[in-house]
């Protein structure tokens, strides 16, 4: 019997082999039962007798192992058999069910009533149905055993995940349409196979997540886990949803693992973004040295390639991250804003160095387009500001509140960069105005009565204003306004140097007339150039020059107190030093009148009104040189 059964097992005639095995086991059980005294009280099997029976039936245990080995080989290759010849698989299932029934019957007999329970035979219960599902899961997990990082690096990982998807879905279709009909309904084979696939994938994706992945690979994993796996192309397929809701399976990777993957992705992208920004800034610095004007956009505004590169890179990273999840998009945007802030800080430092280099090379006039590239930098910052605000608007409300400190970062850095560039533009304007300012408000200037100096000064201003029109609003208006302020401040600063002190009423009249004429030239120039946009400053700097001209023109010195009161009312930041210089320039103010005027100033120091922009605060009065004095006792 044993030899015949062995031949049946070897030829995979499993049902016949199992029938012979059941017969052999029945003989073995009967012998043991009889030696136990058929359950009679007070009888027990001796160790010698039990050993004798086991030796006699030793071939039976080996047959069980051999049959089990063949049986699980058939179950493990069930998918392949189902497509070719499912008969061996059906036979295996029938054997499993027979064994399950035998286990159940023997367990019931062991617990029989009346004290006549039979002992369980050796190797029982076999639990082959449970083993059936274990073998099924082992067959599923075999798909992942040979996978390693070396075989799936780079684009290979996306291909591997795609192959997994098609392989698993093909297997599930085979299980649903073929294998499910080869097992009893209570097996719920499709559901069991789904669970097995999910558990194996959980383990495999945990392994994949631990690899040193690049950003593209992490994106492929996240997209597959969060979207493809639960989509209608995979576990969300309508036919599979009938078997089991995807929520029953649970997440493919834990929340902790998901956050780790997202952090790794953002870190990898950040490294790439930082490198690209560094290269873009290097290109920008090279552009500044070109011996030609910056490029212009379709509206005629100066620009370089920097804002386009940065904007496209950050927008593209945010768009790609959103394909995975909103939270990853928010993390990517925050990372981009941090890197933008770092870039702008380096950009501002580069502007400072650009200005220093230009001042060193001023004599050689190497960079003819220095001013043009400063203006292009300002326009670039305005474009980057628009891009930054757009990215911030994309942030979800939860992330915006979570990162409440972040939004001012890049915007504040942008404002610092713009202010530095505008300051450099004004420094360049002052540098170009300086030769003409030196010729103003001196005795020779008054004596010659030549307006060419003023007209040349206006020519410089006009050229600058023309260039400012190549800057995007609102910085264009800011530059225009700053230009007016600088012109007036420098004009008054020259007056404060007391290059001309009037000797008589005629000189006071001529000085006032020339100052009024200069003010008119400047006013006409600015009115023709300035675009009226938005709110106008409460203090118009050009109005100061006619006021000072009237102060000098005043014929009656006794009216100076009233004149100074009006001056303080209009310009509350004017100091007693400024007024004292103006009195000196007049050249006709007595000590008593001077004392009265200065006392009035001390008593009336009104606070600066809201919205008032100080102008005299920017004008320092030169310190009067002390007369040479020998250290005599009397002097001491």
Automatic annotation (TrEMBL):
Entry superkingdom: Eukaryota
Pfam families noted in UniProt: Sec6
Keyword terms: Exocytosis
InterPro entries documented for this protein: EXOC3/Sec6, EXOC3/Sec6_C
Protein name: Exocyst complex component 3-like protein isoform X2
Cleaved signal peptide residues: none
One cellular component (GO) term of this entry: exocyst
GO molecular function: SNARE binding
Species whose genome carries this gene: Salvelinus namaycush
Family: Belongs to the SEC6 family.
GO biological process: exocyst localization; exocytosis
